[in-house]
Amino acid sequence: MRARYVLPALAAAAALMLTGCVDNSTPATSGTDTSSTPTIETDDAAAALVPAAVADTGKLVIGTDPTYAPNEFKNEAGDPIGWGIEIASGIAAKLGLEPEFQVAKFDNIIPSVTGGKADIGSSSFTDTVERQQQVDFVNYYTAGIQWASQAGKDVDPDNACGLKVAVQATTFEDTDEVPAKSDACVAAGKPAIEKLKFDTQDAATNAVVLGQADALSADSPVTLYAIEQTGDKLQLAGETFDVAPYGMVVAKGSELTVAVQAALQSMVDDGSYQAILDEWGVADGGIDEITINAGANG
């Protein structure tokens, strides 16, 4: 979750702003156009690292919650798309496997991985020490927290006591960032922040557009995308802060972790990783070295 990005007009994303609301689905035709997506070839060395139990299936089952555009969302056909989806598909290709996306609620993805229902989780997970108690992370990106408010209404994330702030449920902003800010308010004798939780980022964004919330807090690429999709209805609130790594979720201690790391590093080395980030306008958060559990170093 975290960092600053300038998002271009994405050919793969069409804005739908009926009744002043945002819907981050896209037309099926545009979402499935892969003409500009790089061809990703199998990396034999990385594929050799895949545990037999996974390799024998011929597929990589990937848990995702496609409600967080532009990282992971759906086209009108209901298919997961987004730059995070393309990175995960690239991992499967490097490992000589077919990607199979398993759509789930965000808070069910880690249990699916630890329970063996999914091989990895790809859903803009911030790598944290707390989550590392359950799973391992293969780090592939850095992002930051970015707030937004209604256009013309200035909100300071560092002085938000008593305000209503919309978040997507179970994200880092929901579980850590906004609660910490609210606790600081109370400790200072000021009113708590009223956190409004929504199942999807679209709903959180719409709450601000419609005036039900004073601001939203989300990962920086997600917030900037929401501002773009709503036209002139939202504005940045403050600067990007708390930069931290995203990580692909893998079962704790699994041999698959080093295979995923090798696959991602191969994508970095051959340029396919950079091509995906460039296509989606999120290259500022790209990294050169794929690491494991980097969140422990934050």
From TrEMBL:
Limits of the Solute-binding protein family 3/N-terminal domain: 59-284
Record's keyword terms, sorted: Signal
Cleavable signal peptide: 1-24
InterPro entries the UniProt entry points to: Solute-binding_3/MltF_N
Chain segments annotated as transmembrane: none
PANTHER family cross-referenced by the UniProt entry: ARGININE-BINDING EXTRACELLULAR PROTEIN ARTP, MEMBRANE-BOUND LYTIC MUREIN TRANSGLYCOSYLASE F
Name by which UniProt lists this protein: ABC transporter substrate-binding protein
The organism's taxonomic lineage, starting at the top: Bacteria, Bacillati, Actinomycetota, Actinomycetes, Micrococcales
